[in-house]
């Protein structure tokens, strides 16, 4: 039996069809519907109640950011993965505000896309390294560094930068010569100081507040 139901919201017909074909090849994934704009995505989510919505950012009638915002009001348990291009990354911060759990490039390998869907369906967050770096590039252009305002230590800032590079806890531990348990403690401290609860929210706060000068 299919475990993860997926709705695809994408205005380009060929991409919708190809994503549907690729995802339905996986025994645990089922594409239950496709939408060509944000308004359709909201209506179909309410009706079909998919676990995962793959959401294009730029669509007619209603863009993916607004559609995500509305979906989170009516179906907060449905999880949204934004499909972005390099040109869309300026809109990622808006998607973070809207409540999306994942941010990946459309050019992602199909196997990696399926893995990202499974990851997000388990309640985790998926942010591609390219998107994360774009968020921090935006924060680097800000005129004011606010890391001292939040009381982040130099090591915590290093860990936060590793998160922005898309590194898992084990990779952060290896890079900074720490134990994985210590990394988890640093991440817990970062969440507490920034008043956030996951990596996506931490990256959003870092981007909004310009934590790196």
TrEMBL record:
Molecular-function annotations in GO: DNA binding
Annotated protein name in UniProt: Response regulator transcription factor
Keyword Amino-acid biosynthesis: no
Keyword Transferase among record annotations: no
4-aspartylphosphate carried by residues: 56
Classification lineage: Bacteria, Bacillati, Bacillota, Bacilli, Bacillales
SUPFAM superfamilies reported in the protein's UniProt record: C-terminal effector domain of the bipartite response regulators, CheY-like
Record domain Response regulatory: where: 5-121
Keyword terms: DNA-binding, Phosphoprotein, Transcription, Transcription regulation
Cited InterPro entries: CheY-like_superfamily, NreC/VraR/RcsB-like_REC, Sig_transdc_resp-reg_C-effctor, Sig_transdc_resp-reg_receiver, Tscrpt_reg_LuxR_C, WalR-like
PROSITE patterns, per the entry: HTH_LUXR_1 (PS00622), HTH_LUXR_2 (PS50043), RESPONSE_REGULATORY (PS50110)
Domain HTH luxR-type per the UniProt entry, residue ranges: 145-210
Originating species: Cohnella lubricantis
Pfam families: GerE, Response_reg
GO BP: phosphorelay signal transduction system; regulation of DNA-templated transcription
């Amino acid at each position: 039996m299919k475990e993860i139901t997926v709705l695809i919201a994408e205005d380009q017909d060929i991409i919708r069809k190809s994503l549907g074909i690729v995802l339905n090849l996986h025994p645990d994934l089922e594409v239950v519907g496709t939408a060509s704009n944000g308004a359709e995505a909201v209506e179909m989510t309410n009706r079909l109640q998919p676990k995962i919505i793959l959401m294009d950012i730029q669509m007619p009638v209603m863009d993916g950011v607004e559609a995500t915002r509305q979906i989170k009001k009516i179906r907060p348990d449905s999880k949204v993965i934004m499909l972005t291009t390099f040109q869309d990354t300026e809109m990622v911060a808006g998607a973070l505000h809207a409540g999306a759990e994942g941010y990946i490039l459309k050019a992602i390998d199909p196997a990696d896309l399926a893995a990202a869907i499974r990851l997000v369906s388990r309640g985790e967050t998926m942010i591609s390294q390219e998107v994360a770096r774009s968020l921090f590039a935006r924060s680097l252009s800000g005129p004011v560094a606010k890391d001292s305002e939040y009381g982040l230590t130099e090591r915590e800032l290093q860990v936060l930068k590793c998160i922005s590079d898309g590194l898992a806890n084990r990779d952060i531990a290896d890079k900074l010569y720490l134990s994985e348990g210590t990394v988890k403690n640093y991440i817990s401290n970062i969440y507490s100081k920034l008043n956030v609860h996951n990596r996506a929210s931490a990256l959003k706060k870092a981007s909004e507040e310009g934590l790196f000068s």
